[in-house]
Amino acid sequence: MGPPLPREAITQSDVMSSSFTLLCLAVDDGNVPIGGFFHVKVYSGQLVSGLQEDIKVKKAPELDHLAADRLILWKLSTRQSAGDTEAELENLYRLIEGIEFHSPRTNEALQGDGVVQVLHPPNRINKYWTYDPYEGDLHVIVQVPYVEERPRKKPRLQIEDLSPTPPLTFGEIQDIDAQKAIAHPTPSSGAKMPFFIQEQKNRPLLNGRPINQFGPPIGLFHPVFNSFQADMESKEPVRVDRQAPSNLRKLLASCADLYTLELPRVKTINIYLNALLGASLTSVSVPNTSTCADGVIIHTSCNSYAYLVIEEVKNEIGTGNADPYTQASLSYRRYWGEPSWDIFRRCSYCPSIILAIAGPWMCVAGGIYLDKAIVQPLTEYIWLGGDAFKESRFDFTLRLFAALKSAISTLQDYYGNLNPSNEIPRHLLHAFPFVTSYGTQSFEYLMPLVDYHRGKLVYKAQLHESGQLIVVKFVSTYNAEAHRLLANNQLAPALHYAGTEAMEAIQYGEHYMVVMDFVDGSEPNEVPLSNEQFGQVDRAVQLLHQQNFVFGDLRTPNLLISGEKVMLIDFDWCGTADESLYPSTLNTDSGIQWPDGVWPGEVMRKEDDVTMLERLRPVTHAEEADPGLA
């Protein structure tokens, strides 16, 4: 239950008139105001259901989408001024946001809980007001429930409907998602449970909640996220302006402070955040909606403005009924999904920095808009409270804000130079990474070869100069030496480039780029290898073992079949025998029968390859007739 509203309790000693005026305010299911205050004239003997009808008429066309009896009316149990100044009005909105409305048929709602009391439709107005309400006070909060749009009834199937429908393009899917974002509940309500659970089932936002709702690394689609993480990991001394340490101390003090309400926290910390970031967090609403994040940094471009930073704040962990990371993710989608911002989505992936703050904790995330909005954390939740004895923590936090300031500057330059005529090819079926060259070669992506939900980032591409088809993949580790060994023996595609070997190893979304020949082929799947094909795999393993390599994941998905030719195509795990370790992400719950001793973090052994190789060996007719011979 939220804190009781201030002001003296209402008495019932006043004399009531036959008619009077109520000051009302409509809010959505996240307690966010829908428009401003409005007056409704009522009669003492009038039914509450009649007041519902009057409010629906008064708020037309905003409430045209639902029946009057869906409106839930609440009377404030204590007096609350509607506010004469902007500060008082903002304070009122924050108080309303903190109210936890009960289900309207519970005793707490019907009898009142000391904060609000539901106005039950069958009752008359004089049951709730036996006096003339005070002018200037807010009397009724109108709760407007979110109504899911019902799908239209499908017309009877026509003959022409049986013809194949072309797949939707990347641009068409993005437009559909953006339209849904505008129709969603506001971020403040959509982030609450159980609303967010339903949202992720019906219209998923790719922010990792739940675990299957994730997107490809955002660093593949804009370099600002890679630069930020590189700045955070740099061993070089951080360089800041002379005022930065002082401003940081003030920010840490303001974050560690205790606040009764969220608004004073937002206003105080944003003073010092603005100084550290070199830009101003301001209050900007999504046009024609009540959505307004706690702060945004904008940059005017393309006759509109781009959102460089989106900030959502909760007074403390657990307050506000929503996780700030989830709410900020929804805010990102709502801001960029607005139709007025189509111009940006036509020529960019809309990169933004996202700040999710709860009390003295802050998480930095990044957002991009592909076919769906994708939000990913760039840091853990970082402590911004007091700790006078840890200079290393202060230095780390100073580096954090220096990296953020640099990222904001990068985004300012990016959006400032954005040319609306340079449209992303929206006829394509997919969005592609921003990196399109290696060494002196440049290329164009053609299609993804694997769905990223399988944990692979593999694309078919074409070199501009020669027209040669290539495969571009992004990996967290790679054994280029082992790949080249097999490629020189026609047992792997020719290797063009491996970012792991580059003089300055560049990462894109914490992944290295690897480029090789495209070979037209397929996985073995359920068809067993022929003796000839098995012999080639056996030879590949022997060559690796002779150089003390262990392949590590000798399964059919990592074999490429082209006629009788077989190649090994995945060297992500390949390492040194009795030295390298199996990755900590090795999946032991997928039903894969790994050899004994194969486990996350265990040493890689040649005998593991031998065991996996034997499982690929073709079964002879004699062995099929008598399994005992096998």
Outline the structure in words.
The chain is of the alpha+beta class and 630 residues long. The protein has 4 domains: 125 residues, Roll (Ubiquitin-like (UB roll)); 245 residues, no CATH class; 87 residues, Phosphorylase Kinase, domain 1 (2-Layer Sandwich); 86 residues. 28% of the residues lie in helices and 18% in strands. It contains 16 helices and 21 strands. Helix 4 packs across helix 10. The N terminus is likely disordered.
Feature tags:
single chain, 630 residues, alpha+beta, Ubiquitin-like (UB roll), Phosphorylase Kinase, domain 1, 6-stranded mixed beta sheet, 6-stranded antiparallel beta sheet, 16 helices, 28% helix, elongated, disordered N terminus
Give the topology, please.
Elements lengths: L18 E9 L10 E6 L4 H11 L13 E5 L9 H12 L9 H5 L4 E3 L21 E4 L26 H14 L3 H4 L4 H8 L20 H11 L10 H13 L5 H16 L17 E7 L2 E11 L9 H14 L4 H6 L4 E7 L2 E9 L3 E5 L4 E2 L7 H26 L20 E2 L2 E8 L9 E6 L5 E7 L4 H8 L7 E4 L13 E6 L13 H16 L2 E2 L8 E4 L2 E4 L6 E2 L29 H9 L6 H5 L5
Parallel strand pairs: 1-5, 7-8
Antiparallel strand pairs: 1-2, 3-4, 3-5, 6-7, 8-9, 9-10, 9-11, 12-13, 13-14, 14-15, 15-17, 16-17, 18-21, 19-20
Helix pairs in contact: 4-10, 7-12, 8-9, 14-15
